[in-house]
Design a protein that fits this description.
Strand order of the largest sheet: 6-7-8-3-9-10
GO cellular component, one term: plasma membrane
Strand content: 25-35%
Distance between the termini: 31 Å
Protein name: ABC transporter related protein
Largest sheet: 6 strands, mixed
Number of helices: 8
Domain ABC transporter: 2-232
Keywords: Amino-acid transport, ATP-binding, Cell membrane, Membrane, Nucleotide-binding, Translocase, Transport
Bound molecules: adenosine-5'-diphosphate
GO molecular function: ATP binding; ATP hydrolysis activity
Helix content: 25-40%
Length: 232
């Protein structure tokens, strides 16, 4: 599904160069919940931002379903971004819009017919088990509920890939578990490929089937979660 080949990302600035991603090679399969773990500064965010082309690599290739996403023209890139949802640690919801408005906004941008939007929003809220919160504003929701809204928004355009950047890092353990259970459930139901980055080993253990561990831009360990965490 996603093949990353010899990927490098160099940041240059006045205070010096940082090779944030160094010779990374990964193969992420269609039904993976793939974890990328590492300490702060390891290069996880840079890698996930390269995956949806919020950053351009210095060298290397990223193939998604066989297509080199670095060669996409504007139209292809727009289409690719629609098919790649993303969720974040701090949810990134619009505070001035209610739950319905936050999800509808993603559909409007993607060019959905106005008449189809209300039923699609309802469908998405059912998917994340938040039907009764359509008219609530983000400030009236718990962290777990906000992340459910963000997940509904990320799934609005039926993406194939869901990228998660520390999506449970701001949540308590019980809420973390409920969000991870939801992601697992959605992966099965929708056939999603999920790539999640986290600094929490428990997150990888509880939800991922495969994982890579990054350190100073490099992948230092990669494989099935059972193998990575087995005690020899
Ligand atoms: P992580 O997500 O694992 O915490 P990052 O990908 O954010 O790691 O950062 C990897 C390295 O790249 C760090 O040394 C960080 O300081 C550096 N870095 C990240 N973004 C930039 C940027 N826009 N400009 C310069 N350096 C950056
Ligand atoms: P979850 O486990 O889903 O994150 P919580 O147990 O934290 O939910 O919240 C329980 C209830 O309290 C929710 O129905 C939510 O609407 C309400 N609630 C949580 N935080 C706030 C808040 N800041 N303002 C208003 N209501 C809140």
């Amino acid at each position: 599904m996603i093949e990353i080949k010899d990927l490098n990302k160099l940041y240059s600035s006045a205070i010096g160069d940082v090779l944030a991603v160094k010779n990374v090679n990964l193969n992420i399969k269609e039904d993976d919940i793939y974890g990328i773990m590492g300490l702060s500064g390891a290069g996880k965010s840079t890698l996930i931002r390269l995956l949806n082309r919020l950053e351009e690599p210095s060298s290397g290739e990223i193939l998604v379903e066989g297509n080199n996403i670095l060669k996409f023209n504007d139209t292809e890139l727009k289409e690719y971004r629609k098919k790649t949802g993303m969720i974040f640690q701090h949810f990134n919801l619009l505070q001035s819009r209610d739950v319905f408005g936050n999800i509808a906004f993603a559909l409007e941008i993607a060019g959905w017919d106005k008449n189809d939007i209300p039923s699609r929003v309802k469908e998405l809220l059912t998917l994340v088990e938040l039907e009764d919160k359509e008219r609530a504003f983000p400030s009236q929701l718990s962290g777990g509920q906000k992340q459910r809204v963000a997940i509904a928004r990320a799934l609005a355009n039926n993406p194939k890939i869901l990228l998660s950047d520390e999506a449970t890092s701001a949540l308590d353990p019980k809420t973390t578990k409920s969000i991870l259970d939801l992601l697992k459930d959605l992966q099965k139901k929708l056939g999603l490929t999920i790539v999640l980055i986290t600094h929490q080993m428990e997150v990888i253990r509880s939800v991922c089937n495969r994982a890579a561990i990054m350190d100073k831009g490099e992948v230092i360990e990669e494989g099935s979660v059972d193998r990575i965490f087995s005690n020899p």
